[in-house]
Design goal:
The protein is built from four helices and ten strands, in the order H-H-E-E-E-E-E-E-E-E-E-E-H-H. The strands form two sheets. Strands 1, 2, 3, 4, 5, 6, 9 and 10 form an eight-stranded antiparallel β-sheet that branches. It is an alpha+beta fold and 195 residues long. The radius of gyration is 29 Å and the shape is elongated. A hairpin with a 2-residue loop joins strand 3 and strand 4. Helices cover 29% and strands 30% of the residues.
Length: 195
């Protein structure tokens, strides 16, 4: 092949790309409809779960004078579930909404302030335990990365998951809440004193 023939080949007109705009638009519209359907189904499921949990009483609010703060924590609220069932999310009364959270522990109980979501208060008598865990309803962290507080509300035991901005605070919270909920381990009879 000569140099002149190479130039002639390069100078030949190229055919224009053929675009099937109707097909592309059809695919885009179909994809958008599919995404809208999935979103609608998820929303319906959320509302259905809320209706199933309608028997859950209204959440308590903090007392006017809760007392001196034992501990304070800034972080995230990751949701609430039925105690012991980390995938059974509770959505009634806004408990399913993830948000930032400010926690304050006093002798009166646990005050949870959530900007942009419903605040709630757990009276000390309703606190059951606290522990470190790795997951709750759609949020999985490293082992011990989540502070889970178990409390009773109505006739239901609830696990609520929190993560502090400083995870090293979690063990102090577990110890403080568990010390508030401990029942006396001493015998109720005077067996030991008689000996």
């Amino acid at each position: 092949m000569t140099y002149a023939s190479l130039i002639n080949l390069a100078a030949e007109e190229k055919s224009a790309e053929v675009t099937n705009w109707g097909g592309r638009i059809g695919w885009v519209v179909g994809l958008l409809l599919f995404v809208a359907l999935v979103y609608w189904l998820m929303r319906q499921g959320w509302q259905w779960r809320g209706r199933l949990q309608a028997d859950l009483p209204d959440l308590p609010t903090a007392p006017e004078t809760p007392g001196e703060a034992k501990l304070e924590l800034s972080g995230r609220y990751h949701g609430s579930t039925t105690a012991g069932q980390w995938l059974d999310r509770i959505v009634a009364h806004g408990l399913g909404v993830r948000s930032k959270a400010e926690l304050t522990l006093t002798d009166a109980g646990l005050d949870v302030v959530r900007p942009g979501a419903n605040d709630f208060f757990v009276p000390a008598a309703q606190l059951r335990e606290a522990r470190l865990d790795k997951g709750i309803a759609g949020k999985v962290l490293t082992e011990g990365g989540l502070l889970v507080v178990t409390w009773s509300h109505g006739d239901k035991l609830i696990d609520s998951g929190f993560r502090s901005d400083r995870a090293e605070q979690h063990p102090a919270w577990v110890a403080a809440i568990n010390s508030m909920t401990e029942t006396s381990a001493q015998p109720t009879t005077t067996e030991g004193a008689a000996r």
